[in-house]
Structure formats: structure tokens, C-alpha cells
From TrEMBL:
Membrane spanning residue stretches: 12-31, 37-58, 85-103, 123-142, 149-166, 178-195, 204-223, 235-252, 264-285, 297-319
GO molecular function, one term: O-acetyltransferase activity
Ranges for domain Acyltransferase: 10-316
Annotated membrane topology: Multi-pass membrane protein
BP-aspect Gene Ontology terms: enterobacterial common antigen biosynthetic process
PANTHER family for this protein: O-ACETYLTRANSFERASE WECH
Pfam families associated with the record: Acyl_transf_3 (PF01757)
Keywords assigned by UniProt, alphabetized: Acyltransferase, Cell membrane, Membrane, Transferase, Transmembrane, Transmembrane helix
Primary location group: membrane
Family named by the database record: Belongs to the acyltransferase 3 family.
Designated name of the protein: Acyltransferase
Top-level taxon in the UniProt lineage: Bacteria
Length: 337
């Protein structure tokens, strides 16, 4: 884990905000989200995760002399990234299948499809996207290193064309939600910041304002969008809005001095993937029953959901880290026998 003084607290803040936003989104109805102006904050959770992924990848590999050889051409790169995703997901998937088998008296017939599509629960599409990122991130960074500004323009135009193609061909929602291509622009914007450490100029602010106006139009004024309705305010025209306040947060040199807050931020930020997996299971099997039991108390259920998912997600993360540590020690001892 990165030393406390050297941590990028802006990234920790964004990741923590994004994962809590995911939980809040799944607690609220569409009407409640609209009343809370969610299209201007928590609805951008996944684009924020994509920006952070692009930023982190660029910070690590932007100086690589042979980018593709060091990533896609490296067994260590591919294995390490799959290894960080697969085991926690398998544990959660087995748990989901076990619950379904007990509930329905048989294993779901589409279990193989469910395995490949991220399992059950809200946000399950994000798991396949993580595997797609293993391949796509090096290719996007290669473009960004050669043509940073041109790359943004190319990807923006390409994203428009993809949304247009989806609208014209009536692409099935399942195919659309599993496509990482629709999130390439926020990934690329994160990479741009990682490479150039850009500042919040008037140009970026203007793009952010235009995106905010677009969100207002499609969410509150009845403006039609080419994007699939569920993501009408999370597409090419809106991504500059969360990017602007991401620049503000990351360039603010945030310092966290309180020891307990440092530890909490580090834990939540480090455990975002595990918290995400936990909330999938929670909202698939537990939320509705608990909500009915407690009498639809929105505030109570929201607080309980956030605390439960974050707490169990952190415990899940710490448990996996402990198992990984023990396995490495055991393998190390075996080599010296």
C-alpha cells in the first residue's frame, strides 16, 4: 500500500465518492434520484471509475518505451490483472448460485451466461468491462501518447458514431451495456490528466458547462438523446461535466491529516471493487426484503445499505489480502525446501 504522505488523496476521494454513489443509486427510485438532482452527482459513478482507471494506468505506463510489449505482450501484466479481478468475483458468483439454488431448488440453466456476464445484481455489467479494460487500456494509451488532443477528438467522434449506430440499429440493451467502447472517452480523459496534469482552464470549464446543459435538457426538459435511455446523461456529451470537477479535486492537493480519516479513506478506496461485488449480492437478494420489513423507510434503508455494503466490502477485501499474503509466504517457503 502506498505510503500515507505519498498518496494521491484526490483519487482516494473520487473512488470513495463513486462507490458510495453506486450504493445510493441502487437504494433510490428513479423519481427520488431526479428529486435529489442525481444526474449532477451520483449518477456519474461509473464514468468516474473509468476516469480513475485511465489516470492510474497512464501514470504507471506513460513512460514505458515499449508499451504493448510491457502490457499485452507480457504474461505478467495479463495474469496480474486477471488475478486481481477473478478470485473475488468467483467467490461472489458461487455465493449467488448457491442462494439461487436454495431458493429455486435447482441451479439456474443460464449459469454459464451469468458467469460470463458478471453474475446477478445491479451493476453486474461492470465486471465484464474490467476484463475488457485489460486489452483496451494499452491501446487507448498508445493513441494518447502519440496524439493527446487528436485522440480526444477521434474518440469523441467515434463515441457519437457508436451512439448513432446503436440508435439506428436498435442495438439490444444487453449488448450496449457490456460494451466498454461507450466509456472510452472518460478513460481517455483520465489518461490525459495522468499524462499532462492539465489545469482547470476556461476551455475545460466551458465544456463542463455545456455538458451540464445537456444533462439538464435530457433529464429535466424532455430533450431526446441518442443514448440508451438508462444512460442518457452518462454518455459522450455529458462526460466533460464529471471530468471538470475531477480536475478540480485532483489538482487541489487535498491533504488528509486526521489519522482515522486517512485509514478510512485508504480502506474504502482500496476496497472499492470488493464493495461493488458485495452491493451486487445485497441488492439482488436482501435489499427489497429488508425494505419491506422496515416499512420503506428511505433514510434508514439508505444509511443501513451504505454502512453494510462498505463494511462487508472492506472485510472481504482484507480477507482476500490476508489469503494472498499467506499463499505467497507458503509458496516462498516451498521454493526454499
Amino acid at each position: 500500500m502506498v505510503e500515507m504522505k505519498k498518496r494521491d488523496w484526490g483519487i482516494d476521494v473520487i473512488k470513495s465518492f463513486a462507490i458510495i454513489s453506486v450504493i445510493l443509486l441502487h437504494c433510490l427510485t428513479i423519481a427520488q434520484r431526479s428529486n435529489l438532482v442525481a444526474p449532477y452527482h451520483i449518477l456519474h459513478a461509473v464514468p468516474l471509475f473509468m476516469m480513475v482507471s485511465g489516470y492510474s494506468f497512464a501514470r504507471r505506463y506513460s513512460s514505458s518505451q515499449s508499451l504493448l510489449a510491457d502490457t499485452l505482450g507480457s504474461k505478467q501484466y495479463v495474469f496480474k490483472r486477471i488475478n486481481r479481478i477473478i478470485w473475488a468475483y468467483i467467490v461472489v458468483f458461487v455465493l449467488e448460485m448457491l442462494v439461487l439454488t436454495i431458493r429455486d431448488g435447482r441451479l439456474p440453466q443460464a449459469s454459464l451466461y451469468l458467469l460470463l456476464s458478471g453474475g446477478i445484481g445491479p451493476g453486474s455489467y461492470y465486471i465484464p468491462l474490467l476484463f475488457e479494460m485489460i486489452i483496451l487500456l494499452p491501446m487507448v494509451l498508445l493513441l494518447m501518447r502519440k496524439q493527446p488532443v487528436g485522440g480526444i477528438i477521434i474518440i469523441t467522434v467515434m463515441s457519437f458514431l457508436i451512439e448513432w449506430f446503436r440508435d439506428v440499429t436498435q442495438m439490444p440493451n444487453e449488448d450496449y451495456r457490456f460494451s466498454l467502447i461507450r466509456f472510452v472517452l472518460p478513460i481517455e480523459l483520465g489518461m490525459l490528466y495522468g499524462i499532462r496534469q492539465i489545469r482547470l482552464t476556461k476551455g475545460w470549464v466551458l465544456l463542463g458547462i455545456l455538458s451540464a446543459c445537456y444533462i439538464l435538457g435530457v433529464e429535466y426538459l424532455g430533450l431526446e438523446s441518442l443514448a440508451q435511455p438508462d444512460w442518457r446523461s452518462q454518455n459522450t456529451l455529458s462526460f466533460f461535466y464529471p471530468f471538470v470537477w475531477s480536475i478540480f479535486i485532483m489538482s487541489s492537493n487535498i491533504k488528509v491529516n486526521a489519522g482515522w480519516l486517512q485509514r478510512l479513506l485508504v480502506l474504502v478506496s482500496s476496497a472499492t471493487y470488493h464493495i461493488y461485488l458485495v452491493q451486487m449480492v445485497y441488492f439482488a437478494f436482501g435489499f427489497n426484503k429488508l425494505n419491506q420489513l422496515l416499512g420503506n423507510l428511505v433514510l434508514t434503508m439508505t444509511l443501513f445499505s451504505v454502512l453494510s455494503c462498505v463494511s462487508f466490502g472492506i472485510l472481504f477485501y482484507l480477507l482476500e489480502e490476508k489469503i494472498r499474503f499467506d499463499v505467497r509466504n507458503l509458496l516462498g517457503k516451498c521454493k526454499h525446501v
